[in-house]
Every structure is written in C-alpha cells, then in structure tokens.
Amino acid sequence: MERNIKNMKISNKYDRLVRKLIAGKSSPGEVEELAHWDVVETKMKKQFDAARNIVDDAAVESRIWNKIDSKCQTPFERKQRLQLRYLKIALAACITVLLVVGGSIFFFNEEPVTSQHIIEYTEIVSSNSRLYVLPDSSRVWMQAGSRIRFSQDFMDKREVWLEGESTFEVTKRKGRNFKVYIDQAFVEVKGTVFRVQSTRQYGAEVTLFSGKVDFNAKASQRKIEMKPLQQIIFHPEKDEVILKNIGNISWDEGRYKFVDMRMDDLIEAIHDIYHIPVELDEKVSRNDLFTGYMRYDDPASKVIEKICINMNLKFRKETQRIIIYK
C-alpha cells in the first residue's frame, strides 16, 4: 500500500514537470530531472502512439513541438543539449499529453487519421565558436550562431542541415557520401575539408580546402564539381552560381594556414572568413606576401594584430571599417 502511494506521488510529480515543460515555465534543473526520468521513453511513447489517432491538425502539433523544443534548448550549453537528444521521445510525448488532455475540446476528430512515420532529429545550436563531432567521427567547426541538424538514421544517410557558418572535416566511408543541405542547394562529398556559410539574407558560400565536392543547385538542377582552393557563391533567389579561385589557404585542426598570399587576396579572404570590414591604405603594397596561421575563432582584433605584426604594419579603427597602413 505504502509503495503504491509512493509511486503515485512520483507519477504526480512528473506530471507536474511535464505540464510546466509544455507551458514553457520549466527551470533548467527541472528539465534536467525530466531528462533522466526512465519511464518517459516507455509510458509516454505509448501515449503518443495512441493520441495520434485523434490529432487531425499536423500544423498545430508542429507549432507546439517547436515551442517546447525552443524552450528546452535555449538555456543549455553542449552537455545539456546532448542530453536533450535522448529526450526527444519524451518531448514528443509532452505534445501528445497536451493533445490528449485538450483533444476533446480543441482537436477532437471522430475519423481516425492515417499514422505517419516520425523521424527524430538532433539539433545543435552554437552560442559560441565550438567543435562538434558527428556520429561518424566527422568534425564540424561551428561559428557562433550556427545551427546544424541531423536525423537519427544519420549513419545510413549522412545528411546534415546547416544554418550559419561551419567548416566540415568529413571522414571517408565507402558507399556513404556526406551531404550538407543549405537553402535551395546541397553539397555532396566523400571525404574532404570545406567551409559553408549559409544565410537567408545573403545566400551561401562554399569554400573547398582539400578533396572534391559536388555543389548542387535544386531549382536548376545544376551540378558543379569543385576543386581545392575554389569557392562558390550562390544566390538562391536568382539561382545564380559563381565559381572562383581563392588564394593559397589550407585548414589544419581549426586553423587557417595562409601561404605566400598577396595582401589584396589576404584582405578579401579575411573579409569572407571573419566578416571584418578591413581595407588597405594606398601606401601598402598589394603584392607583398603573407604567410601565417589564424584560428577559426580568433576575434577580429587578434586577426588584424597578427597581420600587422607579421607585415610590420599598423591599423586604425574608423566608424565602420579598419584601415591597415604603414
């Protein structure tokens, strides 16, 4: 009897945690506690499967899922976010609890809905520059504000969806090419190092450091094979693809290596990689050659300092730009 009362109290406690999670009022500690609740993946999964027969509005379910998912992911760094990867079934079940409780009022439908195949995704949002290792040991050097997403069957399909900017070091796997999806295009590789920058406002840039990749534009179905030290600039709204060569840049464990690069090419590369509005004074020779390393997460001030120290130059900050001068 006492044991049943204890189990009932535990069940009621987690019911309250689930309701707070749905309402977006959970504290980080409560989400952490819910993530370690072993019963979630069994009991809640059954509720989810049962409830799908009364849910007729997929858009409503999607909106609730996005709300819960964003509430759970925002406050956490890497460790907690990876734990949420195993909480996906519980989160889906949380949606179902809401639909079951409110179904007779808001979402009730007398006719059964054909069941759908649900695919779970892991989403990583980088608040700072960081390295993330995918299940196949491929490495993603993520810039701050970037977001990657991959499905639970990643090892079979090796597909990643990217928003923002990241550099990929892809491991080779026989018969399993690697794809990175961006807005209206995707990059397909076997094993290589390349950088992708994708934004809705400015389109995408793909820079290849080693190996070969195929760039695929969806609308025109154009397929372009890229070679090392080439860059593609893609404007999806015009379906425009520009292929150009870049200077001698290589990638080494999170660092860019510049070898005998002309100063004008260096400044262009620095602008592309670090988004620094920097210009050369007219007295600085464009033909001088620069050789050196820079980390992918170096701040703008450090990048400029390295260039100036190496080349015996100076810099000054103006309103919206940095000028390098003698």
CATH topology of the largest domain: Jelly Rolls
CATH C-level label of the largest domain: Mainly Beta
Please write the string of helix (H) and strand (E) elements: HHHHHHEEEEHEEEEEEEEEEEHEEHEE
What count of helical segments does DSSP give?
Answer: 9
Overall mean pLDDT stands at 76
Rg: 25 Å
Question: Stretches where pLDDT falls below 50 for ≥5 residues?
Answer: 40-57, 67-115
**Outline, from the CA principal axes?**
globular
Distance between the termini: 85 Å
CATH architectural group of the largest domain? Sandwich
**Which class of secondary structure composition applies to the elements?**
alpha+beta
Largest sheet: 13 strands, mixed
Structure overview:
By secondary structure, the protein is α+β, with helices and mostly antiparallel strands. The protein folds into three domains: 2-110, no CATH class; 123-245, Jelly Rolls, CATH 2.60.120.1440; 250-325, Phage tail protein beta-alpha-beta fold, CATH 3.55.50.30. The protein has helices at residues 2-23, 28-35, 40-51, 58-73, 78-85, 88-107, 154-157, 263-274, 300-311; strands at 121-125, 130-133, 139-142, 147-151, 159-169, 178-182, 185-189, 193-199, 203-210, 213-217, 222-226, 230-235, 240-245, 249-252, 255-262, 278-280, 289-295, 314-317, 322-325. The radius of gyration is 25 Å and the shape is globular.
